TrEMBL record, chain A:
Protein's cellular compartments: Cytoplasm
The keyword Ion transport is assigned to this record: no
Annotated GO CC locations: cytoplasm
Function: Plays a central role in 2-thiolation of mcm(5)S(2)U at tRNA wobble positions of tRNA(Lys), tRNA(Glu) and tRNA(Gln). May act by forming a heterodimer with NCS6/CTU1 that ligates sulfur from thiocarboxylated URM1 onto the uridine of tRNAs at wobble position.
MF GO annotations: nucleotidyltransferase activity; tRNA binding
Entry-linked HAMAP family: CTU2
Alphabetical list of SUPFAM superfamilies matching this protein: Adenine nucleotide alpha hydrolases-like (SSF52402)
Species of origin: Brassica campestris (Field mustard)
Name listed for the protein in its UniProt record: Cytoplasmic tRNA 2-thiolation protein 2
Alphabetical UniProt keywords: Cytoplasm, tRNA processing
UniProtKB/TrEMBL annotation, chain B:
GO molecular function: ATP binding; nucleotidyltransferase activity; tRNA binding
Involved pathway(s): tRNA modification; 5-methoxycarbonylmethyl-2-thiouridine-tRNA biosynthesis
Species per Swiss-Prot/TrEMBL record: Brassica campestris (Field mustard)
Protein name as annotated: Cytoplasmic tRNA 2-thiolation protein 1
The protein's enzyme class: transferase
Length: 448, 372
């Protein structure tokens, strides 16, 4: 209900003020108090956003940190025996993720040192920074400074100490940097669609993070994606025909990878994150972005426009997508590993009950790792790579001429193409048959 | 850069022959695929794709009476023409009618109805016109005078949907077809995501809806691009229907005078920009909509019938009755926004105004006589 009293801004007049009737707020005379603790003065960020001037600094901070902690505990994202790698781009979202993970670790260390039996170990934290200058040459100018800054930031976040891994994106092709760069450039040049090129780079980025994580003994990859980022992803996935795999990408946990990915900031919006950086003086680095001209950029502008018209639009978009059915891999797998504390195992079991029933395995696209919809399979079995990919990657990444497919396959990193060689068309009949084979009494000739 | 263009640029200038027949010179670039195509091949492929959509989805059975929702706009005019053509050419065996709804919007609907009446003569399809005035006792002009321009589209949409069903029942038709095109459906998918309406999201891409309701309705233009619908009348040439029938833009192309700006407009603009970057994105949105993993439990709420008029409804009263009740009692906000305290009696009694006594009290016609 819009409030008609003068001096009342449209965004700020609901909640308890509505029940009591709206007071005319005159800053000079009355002292405004934080709506949560009612004792401190509220912060004003002056960024024109909603909720400005309602919470004090402490309450604001504890709100955001609270969402992070809730996500971590209810999804068993980080447990005492884990070794966690934080993907750090230097920008606000991953900076906050790194900060919060560090604080969680500090607290765990404190508890460990205070406890008598020292039964719960402290989880390990490492940081990974992907250097994309081989793909975007315009970045190379500021890259060494950026890396130095990242290094000093990570150094400042100790104790406990954290290893920093600077990962050149071309490392997915191997350790010989000259050859790897060359291969990367050749691969990118062979993709004619602008959006396809951007998306392929994202997939390569994830591959490089996975590589560094598994080679260095990490068992969790923390990604700082926030609500706002996911809202854009919902729309880009929709317009690219990726509606089937969408629900896999936007959950708190994505365990289809060798090193499961967790999104502890999934429930925080961009505005909260930037405000927090401002509040805590968290520095970020903005590398000059390659100008994006494709669909991804169009969607970001569209979402920004929608946000102006309604500041809660991003949340609604993600909430809608959250109603889509997730996949069996959107949870931390249960494990009988005796290293995992009993409390964690119990929590996992309780949480995973929701996912029972979907016992299907999925086939995945070798390029984007998206689960494949059965209806996507191509009719003509022309090329193994073409058959194995989802329809979106077929259109925007694979070359259109069938004769170029072989060559393109040779340009892909080994990890992607190796999946194709072993890829068999998912045959549900055979799969089910295999499952019940032991119970069948008829032998093969008599079987229907 | 679109791949089609890249290809033709590499070949050194536009190809000299139509992509499909390789005989004639191309005269246009097909919006859906960017193929360089001649006039004949365009209308042939346009019609053929619609025929495939009809056949592959089993939209009709021979002998069915089918009403075409005809607004006089470009979609329904082209729909009427193409459907009667295909019916004849492929012997669908359908009994086709034009059904038009007069919402009572001066300067808009009265003009577009003239177009529909012309279509009736041109295509030889019988026409039935139903007005909001006859059905509900209110024209849109009356409604807007009462409630202003904020929620008028809600009223119009709800009333039109029911009006089409009632008209179809009056004509004793088996099916209703509407001219919703690919752009419309893509837009609806996006809007449902933006609004959080998961139940509608699961239904909005179906080519046929309401099979368990009074009159099933289908959308043969589900995969047809709006741009192509606009081009089609200029491409078609049939010895029995000369170009003159289409030449004067024999369809009505003005925006409804009450249409609000913003919201749906954002999504429309976005889709236009998207189409420019990647034409197939419109079909990709529809594909995504079809592929979304939505649990069957989130689908249709239980369907009953309205206590007042017998129309299909998931609540005690159907939406049209709720809205009408509000109008008749001078409580135009009733039925708008989220329900409070369940059912039609919730809410704003204290706001009843003196206007209640002078307001029309015609109710929706009882549906007992209509074969629901």
């Amino acid at each position: 209900m819009a409030c008609n009293s003068s001096g009342c801004e449209s965004g700020g007049c609901y909640g308890r003020e509505k029940e009591n009737g709206c007071k005319v707020v005159d800053v000079k005379e009355t002292v405004r108090l934080c709506v949560k603790c009612k004792s401190n003065e509220p912060m004003t960020f002056g960024d024109g956003g909603s909720d400005d001037g309602r919470f004090c600094a402490e309450c604001f901070r504890s709100n955001v940190y609270g969402k992070f902690r809730l996500a971590v505990t209810s999804h068993a994202m980080i447990t005492p025996s884990d070794n966690v790698l934080v993907a750090f781009s230097g920008r606000s979202s991953s900076r906050v993720a790194l900060q919060f993970v560090h604080e969680l670790q500090v607290k765990a260390l404190k508890n460990y040192e205070a406890s008598r039996d020292r039964s719960l170990p402290v989880f390990g934290v490492g940081v990974a920074f992907v250097d994309e200058s081989a793909a975007y040459p315009s970045l190379s100018g500021g890259m060494s400074d950026a890396i130095a800054w990242v290094r000093s930031t990570v150094l400042s976040l100790s104790p406990p100490e954290k290893d920093l891994h600077v990962v050149p994106i071309e490392s997915v092709f191997g350790s010989d940097s000259v050859e790897a760069r060359d291969r990367l450039v050749k691969l990118l040049d062979s993709v004619s669609d602008e959006t396809g090129k951007e998306d392929l780079l994202l997939h390569l980025k994830m591959l490089s993070l996975q590589k560094v994580a598994s080679e260095n003994g990490y068992n969790r990859l923390v990604v700082g994606s926030c609500t706002s980022r996911l809202a854009s992803h919902v729309l880009t996935a929709t317009v690219k025909g990726r509606g089937y795999s969408l629900s896999a990408d936007i959950q708190h946990v994505d365990a289809r990878w060798k090193v499961p990915i967790v999104l502890p900031l999934r429930d925080c919006v961009w505005q909260e994150i930037t405000r927090l950086c401002h509040l805590d003086g968290l520095k970020t680095v903005e590398l000059a972005r390659h100008p994006q001209s494709g669909i991804n950029d169009l969607v970001s502008s569209f979402v920004a426009l929608l946000q102006e018209e309604n500041p809660s639009r991003e949340c609604t978009i993600v909430r809608t997508a959250a109603k889509l059915t997730p996949f069996y891999f959107n949870k931390i797998p249960e494990t009988d590993d005796s290293c995992v504390p009993m409390a964690t195992q119990r929590r996992l079991k309780k949480f995973n009950l929701k996912y029972d029933g979907s016992m299907t395995t999925e086939a995945f696209c070798p390029i984007c790792n998206g689960p494949l919809n059965g209806s996507d399979s191509s009719e003509d079995e022309s090329d193994a790579l073409y058959d194995a990919c989802c329809s979106s990657c077929r259109f925007q990444i694979l070359p259109q001429e069938p004769s170029s497919l072989d060559h393109f396959g040779s340009l892909l990193p080994h990890h992607m193409i190796s999946q194709v060689k072993h890829h068999q068309k998912f045959d549900s009949q055979t799969y089910l048959r295999e499952k019940i084979k032991d119970c069948l009494l008829l032998d093969d000739e008599e079987a229907v | 850069m679109e791949r089609g263009e890249a290809k033709s640029k590499k070949a050194g200038g536009p190809p000299r022959l139509c992509c499909i027949c390789n005989e004639k010179r191309p005269v246009l670039k097909r919006p859906k695929t960017l193929q360089q195509i001649c006039r004949e091949c365009f209308y042939e492929v346009f019609e053929e794709e619609i025929h495939q959509a009809i056949v592959n989805n089993g939209l009709f059975k021979s002998g069915e009476r089918v009403a075409i929702g005809a607004s006089g706009g470009k979609d329904s005019t082209v729909l009427a023409y193409v459907l009667s053509e295909l019916n004849r050419r492929h012997s669908y065996g359908l009994d086709l009618f034009l059904l038009s709804i007069d919402e009572g919007i001066t300067g808009y609907r009265d003009d577009s109805l003239e177009t529909v009446k012309r279509n009736e003569l041109q295509y030889g399809l019988p026409l039935q016109i139903l007005s909001y005035k006859d059905l509900y006792g209110w024209t849109m002009d009356d409604i807007v005078k009462m409630i202003g321009l904020k929620n008028n589209c809600t009223f119009c949409g709800v009333f039109r949907r029911q009006a089409l069903d009632r008209g179809a029942a009056l004509l004793k038709v088996d099916k209703l077809v509407t001219g919703h095109n690919a752009d419309d459906i893509a837009e609806t998918v996006l809007l449902n995501i933006l609004r959080g309406d998961i139940a509608r999201l699961s239904r909005c891409t179906s080519i046929t809806t309401g099979e368990d309701g009074p009159i099933p309705r289908c959308k043969p233009f589900k995969y047809t691009y709006e741009k192509e619908i606009v081009i089609y009348p200029f491409a078609v040439s049939n010895p029995h229907h000369t170009y003159a029938y289409f030449k004067k833009l024999d369809y009505f192309s003005t925006e409804c005078i009450y249409s609000p700006n913003a919201y749906r407009g954002f999504a429309r603009e976005f889709i236009k920009d998207l189409e420019r970057l990647r034409p197939r994105a419109i079909l990709d949105i529809i594909k995504s909509g079809e592929d979304f993993r939505i649990a069957t439990t989130t689908k249709m709420p239980e369907q009953g019938t309205c206590e007042r008029c017998g129309y299909i409804s998931s609540q005690k009263w159907c939406k049209a009755c709720v809205l009408l009740d509000g109008l008749n009692r001078g409580l135009p906000k009733m039925g708008i926004g989220r329900a409070r305290g369940g059912g039609v009696n919730g809410g704003d009694h204290k706001k009843e105004t003196k206007a209640g006594s002078t307001v029309k009290t015609l109710e929706t016609k009882q549906c007992g006589s209509l074969d629901f």
